[in-house]
Automatic annotation (TrEMBL):
Gene3D superfamilies in the record: Ribonuclease H-like superfamily/Ribonuclease H
SUPFAM superfamilies, A to Z: Ribonuclease H-like
Domain Reverse transcriptase: 1-127
Residue ranges of every copy of the RNase H type-1 domain listed in the record: 295-421
Protein species of origin: Araneus ventricosus
Protein's recorded name: RNase H type-1 domain-containing protein
InterPro entries attached to this UniProt entry: RNaseH-like_sf, RNaseH_domain, RNaseH_sf, RT_dom
Gene Ontology MF terms in the entry: nucleic acid binding; RNA-DNA hybrid ribonuclease activity
Length: 570
């Protein structure tokens, strides 16, 4: 019926008493909600064209992407011309036109840039040769090394950061808020389809670290000479290079690659839970309803899932008059409680379908998340779709609050906990993606911690004495405290280290003239100390709010009275 809209079309125009009607056979119907669907019907014929080997076509909206692979530019040109001729014939039959001024050609070579790239034409018009092309938000260059995309990301994030930095100065936007915005918005821009372009090369790592470094400097207010390793620890931000590695590993596991390595170690473990989509007509999809009622019916089933001491179990408790029985199932230890709850529901429905097929039944569960998942139009979960497929009109679902003394629910909860100690695993489900991410994030934190604690690491050793452990919950957004922790501030030791100017402190008491000198010893700022004592350590000072406030006032005084405190050497 939908395809019939593409034939027998007419266009009418009324002007006063005059009416003109003409046949319309060109292109796709426009200005309607069904326009995109009708275009897909037209474009689908182009996707069915039988091209030569190593020639593929993809389409997104009204854009077509043609890929041709061959050795030698002459063979590439020949394949491209053959494919374009087929597309031209299709466009003439479909009565649509390609925008030749927007058509571009980009050659991908094993060694990157082509000295003599192939030149092709389309319908007698030369195709514009380009060195970069944007496909679905990703910038591809000739070398397919991801550097062009990283440069594009840097530009976008720099613009956003500039505006946020202005907001921080004028509107009081704190560094902690900047960190939240980074994780909620900028993070996704930075990691967008990372598995498609991230290869983990040194150049990619340098550029990725450089982009994240801009964010960390904006959050902490640190000097630009502060090491990147120290900025990660001070801001509590995981290195984005490690997160890219995680995204690639997850993608490879989803696509069931034989060997997947992460941070130098091969991931050996259970098969990842992969959703297998099966198309069903919208009218045939079961609409699941549930309520919080507690009807009294002859057949009632209570379901529950539990995780105890690292083991996972599921169970359902059947009540039929005076007859009661428990059914228990142990799952894999890596399975989640959500999987256990869904498994209990699924097993209960299967038992009912086999043993009481035509008897009305009420099924009770205390898992609100499972019931809400069943109500989703597209749950993208194999267990949920299986439950919806076997549920019939003889079953009513109900939610019951947990641990309020409902006898059936308490029995199901007890049975689920007992199921965790069964000797053998009864239900074999895949590893949920959320559990995989949790495990990989734990590995990232361990790797980050080992790198920070490495004795051979020469970067950020002064901050290491204050923060020997990494933490994602830490975020120091006070620029004065950051100067103290990094030892990068307007101190004589800093000026001498970076060859800015040769100077010392006028008090002459300490030749180091670093942050510790001003916090504990310098007599020029002694009037600002009331709680800080030389017997204390810098971590002790920073951890105390009142002493930290004194520390900030000392650093601010040094910054404001630099000419009075510093003495230039001859």
């Amino acid at each position: 019926m939908v395809a019939s809209f593409l034939s027998g079309r007419r266009v009418s125009m009324n002007y006063g008493s005059i009416s003109v009607t003409r046949s319309y056979t060109i292109g796709c119907p426009q200005e309607s909600n069904s326009g995109p669907l009708l275009w897909l019907i037209i474009a689908n014929d182009a996707l069915k064209l039988q091209f030569a080997n190593d020639t593929k076509i993809l389409a997104y909206a009204d854009d077509f992407y043609l890929f041709a692979a061959a050795t030698g530019k002459h063979k590439v040109r020949e394949k491209v011309h053959q494919a374009l001729e087929m597309l031209q014939r299709w466009s003439e039959g479909a009565k649509v036109e390609f925008a030749h001024d927007k058509t571009q050609l980009i050659p991908f070579g094993k060694k990157g840039k082509h000295r003599h790239p192939p030149y092709c034409s389309f319908a007698g018009k030369p195709i514009k040769l380009t060195r970069q092309m944007k496909i679905l938000g990703v910038i591809l260059n000739e070398g397919l090394n991801g550097l062009a995309h990283l440069d594009h990301i840097r530009g976008k994030i720099t613009k956003i950061l500039n505006r946020l930095t202005i907001a921080r100065g004028r509107r009081g936007l704190s560094g902690k808020v900047l960190k939240v915005l980074y994780h909620r918005a900028l993070y996704r821009i930075l990691l967008y389809v990372a598995p498609a372009w991230w290869a983990g090369t040194c150049r990619q790592r340098d550029r990725m670290s450089s982009i994240q470094r801009q964010v960390m400097l904006a959050i902490t207010g640190a000097f630009r000479t502060t090491s990147t390793a120290a900025l990660h620890v001070i801001s509590g931000m995981i290195p984005s290079t490690l997160v890219c590695e995680m995204e690639v590993a997850i993608s490879q596991l989803k696509h069931q690659h034989a060997h997947v390595s992460f941070l130098g170690e091969e991931i050996i473990g259970p098969i990842l839970e992969v959703y297998h989509h099966t198309w069903t007509h919208p009218s045939a999809r079961t609409r699941v309803q549930w309520d919080a009622d507690h009807p009294s019916i002859s057949l009632s089933i209570y379901t529950d899932g539990s995780k105890l001491d690292g083991r996972v179990g599921a169970a359902f408790h059947v009540v039929e008059g005076t007859f009661t029985v428990d059914f228990q199932f142990r799952l894999e230890d890596y399975n989640s409680v959500f999987q256990a709850e869904l498994s209990a529901l699924c097993q209960a429905l299967q038992w009912k379908l086999i043993n009481r097929p035509h008897q009305h039944c009420d099924i009770f569960t205390d898992s609100m998340s499972a019931l809400k998942a069943l109500q989703k139009h597209q749950p993208r979960n194999n267990l949920v779709e299986e439950i919806k497929a076997i549920q019939d009109g003889f079953v009513s679902l109900h939610w019951v609050k947990a641990h309020i003394g409902v006898e059936g629910n308490e029995s199901a909860d007890k049975a689920a906990k007992e199921a965790t100690i069964r000797a053998n695993v009864d239900l074999h489900l895949g590893l949920p993606i959320r559990s995989l991410k949790t495990d990989l994030k734990r590995r990232i934190l361990d790797h980050w911690s080992r790198t920070w604690e490495d004795n051979e690491n020469t970067k950020g050793r002064f901050p290491y004495g204050i923060f020997p452990r990494v933490s994602t919950s830490r975020c120091l957004d006070n620029r004065l405290l950051t100067q103290a922790i990094s030892n990068h501030g307007r101190f004589p030791s800093y000026f001498r280290r970076f060859n800015i100017k040769d100077c010392t402190c006028r008090c002459g008491e300490d030749t180091s003239d670093d942050i510790l000198h001003y916090i504990f010893h310098c007599q020029l700022v002694a009037h600002l100390r009331s709680r800080i004592r030389p017997t204390l350590t810098l971590p002790q000072v920073i951890s105390d709010k009142r002493m930290a406030k004194e520390l900030c006032s000392i650093i601010q005084f040094v910054n404001d009275h630099e000419e009075d405190i510093l003495q230039l050497e001859d």
